[in-house]
Amino acid sequence: MVAENPLFRGGHLFWKLKATVVNDIFPEVAFFTLVATAVSIVTERKIHNLAVNNGLLTVLGTVLGLVISFRTSSAYERYQEGRKMWTNISIASRNIAQIIWIQVPSDRTDKEKRPMTTVQSVVEKKSMINLVQGFSVAVKHFLRGENGVYYEDLYPLICLLPRYANVAGPKTEADMLPVWAASEDKEHPLHTAQPPPPSRSNTLGYNTAVSSMIGDSDGKSDKSWFKSVTGRRTASRAGSVDPEKALASIQSHVPLKPASNPPEASITDYFPFLRIFSIFTRCCRRKEKRHNRDAFGRKIKPSFAESNVPLEITIYLNTYLAYLLRNGWLQPAPATGLMNNIASLQDTLSNLDRIGNTPLPFAYQAHLRMSLWLYLLVLPFQVVAGLHYLTIPGTAFASFLLLGFLEIGQEIENPFNYDENDLDLDTFCLAIQRELHEITAHTTPDPTTYIFTAWNQPLAPADKRNAEELTQTGDVYTHADHSDVEPGMAHIRRTLLKNWRDVDRITRQQQ
After folding, report:
1. Which of 25, 146, 220, 279 is most buried per CB count within 10 Å?
2. 170 preceded by cis ω (within 30°)?
3. Could you tell me which residues are beta bridge partners of residue 108?
4. Three-state DSSP state, 92
5. Where do the structural domains in the chain lie, given as residue ranges?
6. CB atoms within 10 A of CB 174
7. Does the reported pTM lie above 0.90?
8. Distance between CA atoms of 369 and 405, rounded to whole angstroms?
9. Which phi-psi region, left, alpha or beta, contains residue 219 (left: φ > 0; alpha: ψ -120 to 50)?
10. Which residues form a coiled coil (predicted)?
11. Nearest CA-CA partner of 415 in 135, 146, 85
């Protein structure tokens, strides 16, 4: 997503043009400009008078303008709705994480009187919050048409989930659970996968090496070492974000795909007029490039395929809620909140699926584009009598204006891909990751440990004493600055009223 004007940022001119629709409409604008040039030359040099009556120009132009405006408005509405849905995912993820981390007790005993240590409880709650983080990542890959679970930013979060219906039973394809069966391939069978062996020494060595790499005094990191240990790709640009560094290092039996895998840019993205030669070189292209682009070099929007990964994650979250309720570890009010927020995740997933899988009908798009082409094709014949050679720039501007709005509507209709103007789903997922880690960093202290201290002045500005002084008795109430103060609630109520008067007066004076 282009969040700021790219024309005033660094980078080459071709990248800046890619953030606009100039590259996409350039061939069509050039074609209609050539038509206008031919009409102007033939008419002005008296070869033949190609001017026609312009009676329909105003009527057709108004109708086309209204239809294109509706097309662009409907596409932008979908764009905004997609952004709102991601805000809902962020809100629900925060709420679920806070309920699990704060409301679920750490010292607990189940119905069978089996105690659970604090360490076990923290590991359990943090693991479920990691699943919440995995939901947003799974939705991102689903919206981009990337199926399966073997991605560098998704697999470490959900690899703890069971693979087979029978834990101690047979491990065959018939016993494989849906979330793993959908990602299974014949080249790397799941039944050959083995969990990583526990090794404290390797863990300490890994953490020490990563710490030294991140905190190097020279400001440089040994990225080749990181790649050799984790098997992950490093960021290609200096200063770019590498989200895999903030995740666990889990050995996978399947080579993990990158977290972000945009289609490779070709020369036709920077020089659109070369697309006419693409049809002749189609047989010479590599198979993977042909998959991402059509015969004319245009990007092919990935279509959604049915993915059950986000759904499976919400099922496990609901299973965890039922587990807490069976053991009486969650009160009814937070349990209702947890259930509602999980339902909100499922509802948001359905809405995002609706946005991405319900484009404008093809008949409408095709008829609108053909009508616009006919209008621009006839436009030079209608205006050449009045504009003469100005017909050429006039037609170029009209085609640039109308075709640009039409192309913008088509580009932002599905805002979940890798185009420059699509929503930045990677940034949204990273923001959710930061927020969830901030929640789990909270130690949930007893409020009495930080309220009744010298750092707290709850009755300021009328009474500048701290909470520790307010809760004491004796000489503190006869201090010279507070000789008229009455102890107890009567004084607190009087002070709160004085606070209101002082704040009301001070803030109004500053306006």
Report:
1. 25
2. no
3. 116
4. helix
5. 7-142+310-440, 197-246, 448-509
6. 9
7. no
8. 11
9. left
10. none
11. 85
